[in-house]
Amino acid sequence: MTELKDQSLTVQMPDGHTQAAVPEPEITSQLVLFTLSDETYGVDIQRVREIIRIPEITRIPKTPDFIEGVINLRGGVIPVVDLRKRFNMPAADQARLAETGRIVVMDMRDWTIGMMVDGVSEVLRVQGGAVEPPSPYIVSADTRFIAGVVKDGDRLVVLLDLDAVFFDEEKEQMAGLNQVEAPAG
To answer: 7, 12, 82, 87 - which has most CB atoms within 10 Å?
Structure first.
C-alpha cells in the first residue's frame, strides 16, 4: 500500500512497517557545449569521442564545400565538417580559429566525423525537463538541425540533432571517407 503523508511518499512493506519511498532521480543528460559565432550549441556527451585542436586538414576534391577534408587520427581517417559552412554562417576569423578552434570528434552510429567549431566551453548537466522545443526566434541555423533549446540561467543552448544535420547522401559520402585507411607512418 502506498500513501502520501505530509507531501512525502511512504510505502507499506509486507511486514507491516512503512518506509519512505526514495524519489526516482530525474533523468539527466550531459551536453558538450561549443560556440559557433556568438551562439552556444550542445551535443550529447555520449556521442563525443574526443575533442582535439585543429590539425592539418587534407582537402578532398569533389566534396561538398562544408567538408573541410580529412584528418589522420591515430591511424583512422576522419572527415571534418565546418559547422559554420554547414549552417550557412559567415566564416570564422582565422586567427581566432587557430587559437580557440577545436574539432569535436563524434560517433555517428557506424562511422566517425569531426566537427570544426569556434571553441568548446564546458560540459553541462541537464535535467530531463529542461529541454524545450526550438524557438521560432532562432534564425542562424536551419531549424531541422535543432532538437531543442536548453535554458541555463540567462543563456540559451541550442541542442543539435546530429542525425538531422546531414542528408542521407551526405552521410554516405562522409562514411565512405571514413572507410579509407590512413597510410602507415
So the answer is: 82
Separation in Å, CA 73 to CA 84, 101, 174: 22, 17, 15
Whole-prediction pTM: 0.77
Q: What amino acid is encoded at 160 in this protein? A: L
- One-letter identity of residue 162: L
Q: Which of 35, 173, 171, 9 is nearest to 101 (CA)?
A: 35
Instruction: Report the residue count for the chain.
Output: 185
Q: Interior CA angle at 184 toward 53 and 174, to 5°?
A: 55
What is the Cα gyration radius of the chain?
A: 21
pLDDT digits (tens, 9 = 90+) for 52-76: 999 999 999 988 899 999 999 999 9
Place of cell 554562417: 89
Rounded to 5 degrees, what are φ and ψ at 106? -120, 145
